[in-house]
Amino acid sequence: MDAHPYAALTPDLALDAIESLGHRCDGRLLALNSYENRVFLAGLEDGGALVAKFYRPGRWTDAQILEEHAFAAELAEREIPVVAPLAAADGKSLNDFGGFRFALFPKRPGRAPELDRDETLLIMGRFLGRIHAVGALVPFRHRPRLDIATFGREPLDFLLGSGLLPPDLAATYQSVARDTLARVENAWGRAGAPRFIRAHGDCHAGNVLWTSEGPHFVDLDDCRMAPAVQDLWMLLPGERGADQSALAQVLRGYREFCDFNPAELALIEPLRTLRMLHYSAWIARRWDDPAFPAAFPWFGTQRYWQDQILQLREQAAALDEPPLEMPG
């Protein structure tokens, strides 16, 4: 019998949770692409729909979730297109039902942004500049920081003690990962002391819904204190020449609304490396969730860890290169 907490989150429970807030569901419930939490699109009797997000038990405290909600609401109030949670009749955005914490969001249409277009990058830069101008006003009090300790050393230590690495590759992976992490620390030091602000934290194309009117930013579940460039580098294609061209467009829009510290360009490759380590540790932490082995069957294979060793070696080389140049 599956003892994972989400085993109790049945379709009936999800629908009952939504209806407990006064909404009338028509029985349609579609699971959306989310592994960390459970997210559903629920049809309503009036023909509309809502998105219901059930938070993973034990991941965030109530205070951390409410800080996410408050940041999203603050941005939405300033007419920045962030999809914020809906408040119930009592004003609460975080709700409890059947042992789960959940929030409701309006359904927004959209498609993935075309990040190979200069106009798209320019518009994305403008909106991220607006988000960061607000994010820099006050700090998070409860959300964590994105730094070498939280996204590098701690995830690596977890991986090495997880027992999920193939025995014949574990020593090589440990050696390469620790060497690459040392280079991350050196490169981070070259950036000086970057300013940490409230940031989206996971601003990849999958968390942006693009319409004819521009983007809607969704899923602030990973928002945290981070250098501003954390929300910019994932918009870049990943090849140095193309990165330099794309960066020029993003920063052209960004700097219309927010200053950018050129020293943070030295953090792009360190942050890319930290994301690699954190991603592997994220899957390892969730391996007892039946959804993860089903969704990531390649995770425990020799090929996956061989590829990780190769990619970390490539990152080590990239970390030794000069950072991208600040556009004029």
How would you explain this protein's 3D organization?
- The chain is of the alpha+beta class and 328 residues long.
- It has two domains: 12-106, Phosphorylase Kinase, domain 1 (2-Layer Sandwich); 118-319, Orthogonal Bundle (Transferase(Phosphotransferase), domain 1), CATH 1.10.510.10.
- The protein has ten helices and nine strands.
- The protein has helices at residues 11-19, 62-77, 118-135, 148-161, 167-190, 230-233, 240-254, 268-285, 291-295, 302-319, and strands spanning 25-31, 38-44, 49-54, 95-97, 100-106, 196-199, 208-211, 214-217, 224-227.
- The strands form three sheets. A five-stranded antiparallel β-sheet has the order 1-2-3-5-4.
- Helix 4 (148-161) runs antiparallel to helix 5.
- The longest helix is centred in the middle third of the chain and has 24 residues, at 167-190.
- The model has no long low-confidence stretch (mean pLDDT 95).
Briefly, what is this?
With 328 residues, this protein is of the alpha+beta class.
Key structural traits:
single chain, 328 residues, alpha+beta, Phosphorylase Kinase, domain 1, Transferase(Phosphotransferase), domain 1, 9 strands, 43% helix, globular
pLDDT below 50 for ≥5 consecutive residues: which ranges?
A: none
Estimate the mean pLDDT confidence: 95
Biggest sheet record? 5 strands, antiparallel
Series of secondary-structure elements, N-terminal to C-terminal: HEEEHEEHHHEEEEHHHHH
Q: What form results from the Cα inertia axes?
A: globular
**CATH architecture label of the largest domain:** Orthogonal Bundle
How many runs of DSSP E, i.e. beta strands? 9
If you consult CATH, what is the topology of the largest domain?
Transferase(Phosphotransferase), domain 1
- Order of strands in the sheet with most strands: 1-2-3-5-4
The fourth-level CATH homologous superfamily of the largest domain is Transferase(Phosphotransferase) domain 1
Distance between the termini: 61 Å
DSSP helical segment count: 10
Q: What structural class do you assign from the helix and strand content?
A: alpha+beta
State the share of residues found in helices, binned by percent. Answer: 40-55%
Q: Give the number of domains.
A: 2
Radius of gyration: 21 Å
- Under CATH at level 1, the class of the largest domain stands as Mainly Alpha
Strand share of the residues?
5-15%
